[in-house]
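Sanity check

After download, print the first record. It should look like this:
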Amino acid sequence: MDLIQLPPDLSGPALWLPLVWAGIIALAVAMYVLLDGLDLGIGIMFTAAESENWRDRMMLSVAPVWDFNETWLILGGAGLFAVFHIAYAVLMPALYVPILVMLIALIFRGVAFEFRFKAERSKHWWDRSFHYGSLVATFAQGMVLGAFVQGFATNGRQFTGTTWDFLSPFSVMTGLALIAGYGLLGSTWLIMKTSGNLELWARRMAMRYLLATLAAMAVVSLWVPFLDTDIRQRWFDRPNLYYLLPVPLVTAVVALALWRAVHRNARYWAFLLAVALFLLGYLGLGISLFPNIVPHQVTIWEAANTPSSQMFTLIGFSFALPATLAYTVYAYWVFRGQVAEDVESSGYH
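Expected structure tokens:
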């Protein structure tokens, strides 16, 4: 089986425009997962923090940047709707329940984030709301991922399954895996952004989440090839096996380097290596599924709109995407310092 199979009957814009758009949507999803994943990870750990001061500092570490992370989710969803309408028409009915749960949880988490800074007697309730909103949103995202990877029942361009097809042992596993992964991102972010006893606690949490993440990645990596014959052949048939062998090897090296970075208090390296570990897992899923945008039925070329429609939308995205990326980099650079140990939660506003 060839590693990459391009449609032989297409050429010119009809061939390369869907590839460009697949790259744009993949970038938007990756940026959302990494950026919103770290503050969802902080929410997952939130109620385990030992004091109100710790929780204040955890929240203040993401307060200047958290509310525009969802911009990347909007960009990815808008791109899917505007360019791959067939995929959108299949995916939304199939994933309606977990996406709705995710959105409600994200809204609830956002409300809790803002209200907590003003609350006095009810502050502990908003702490729990922030925690459970983050936990439920993360688990729902993981179930969306698992349902996407395992594929959908379709008839041509229509979803023919049931509302609850997304719920399976594999999607539950990916939901739990994403909780561990976001916890790793959040804990390594705190290693980089805090000091003192909170940083020491974050390092201990990072060790636990790293072990959980690696275990989950191992289970998912062994499970995915058995979901579809093409995936199994892509990874294990020769010569693909030799081409793709560096992916798990590099993942193992990065995981070892991350363990050492956390142990040695290499605060910046710990977070960057956690990001690298996420991207390697993302790459593995991309290798398994490409070029299908509705696994394992519809390719990006079959789902794409007309080339003229794609080109028109690409002109708009050529302004929106760099502007969003530039603003993201600038915001994180401006607020790159550590959070002081003696903070007041009311200082956010």
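If your output differs, re-run the checksum step. Summary of this record's structure: The longest strand covers residues 292-294.
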